[in-house]
Design brief:
Helices cover about 35% and strands about 15% of the residues. By secondary structure, the protein is of the alpha+beta class. The N terminus is likely disordered.
């Protein structure tokens, strides 16, 4: 009897391996097909979520870099616009002299009234937010939180004559995103002869 049980079990195992069917004789110890357990299905879900997350990570990082690049492009464009506005002013004021950097009179209380380059020194939009050259708020949603400041400095060079102190102006325009500096632009302007 023992021989036939072993033979039957082997035959059942062989049948299971070939056709993956369940043993046809009840009571005989043979391998039975198992179902997917809860633990196995949870492990499969965890592995699938890890694979999906790692596959999507480069795309989300790429999207955030694209948004940062757009923001930097806007900051550069608005900085260049401010630089062009400053450079559109003459080197000297209407009286033909150079004054210390900053507005010359109390009348020059906003940038539309600035009459020369050095009037822009100390100009900032930190409190008011960015405005265009006619003092209208810039409503571009990509520019929200950006602001600019301008610094004007008279510079001299080593071989320059000692009496010639106001021949060159260094214009610096910075664009900020909140408290983070985004762009700094410099331009050296020479006096007209």
């Amino acid at each position: 009897m023992k021989f036939s049980t072993t033979f039957t079990t082997r035959r059942c195992v062989v049948r299971l391996r070939r056709s993956a069917a369940v043993c046809a004789r009840p009571g005989i110890a043979c391998m039975r097909r198992r179902g997917l357990t809860l633990v196995e299905s949870l492990m499969a879900a965890v592995v699938l979520s890890i694979v999906a997350t790692s596959a999507l990570l480069p795309f989300t990082a790429g999207a955030s870099h694209a948004l940062a690049a757009i923001r930097l492009q806007k900051a550069t464009a608005y900085g260049q616009a401010m630089m062009e506005e400053v450079l559109a002013r003459p080197f000297y004021g209407p009286d033909g002299t150079t004054n210390p950097p900053g507005p010359d009179t109390a009348f020059e209380d906003r940038r539309q009234r600035y009459d020369d380059l050095d009037d822009f020194s100390g100009f900032t939009e930190q409190i008011t937010g960015m405005r265009d050259y006619i003092n209208q708020p810039i409503t571009d949603p990509d520019a929200a939180g950006l602001w600019r400041d301008v610094t004007i400095t008279y510079v001299s060079f080593p071989d320059q004559q000692a009496a010639d102190t106001n021949s060159y102006i260094l214009v610096r325009v910075r664009v900020w995103d909140g408290n983070a500096l985004m762009v700094t632009l410099h331009r050296l302007v020479a006096r007209e002869y």
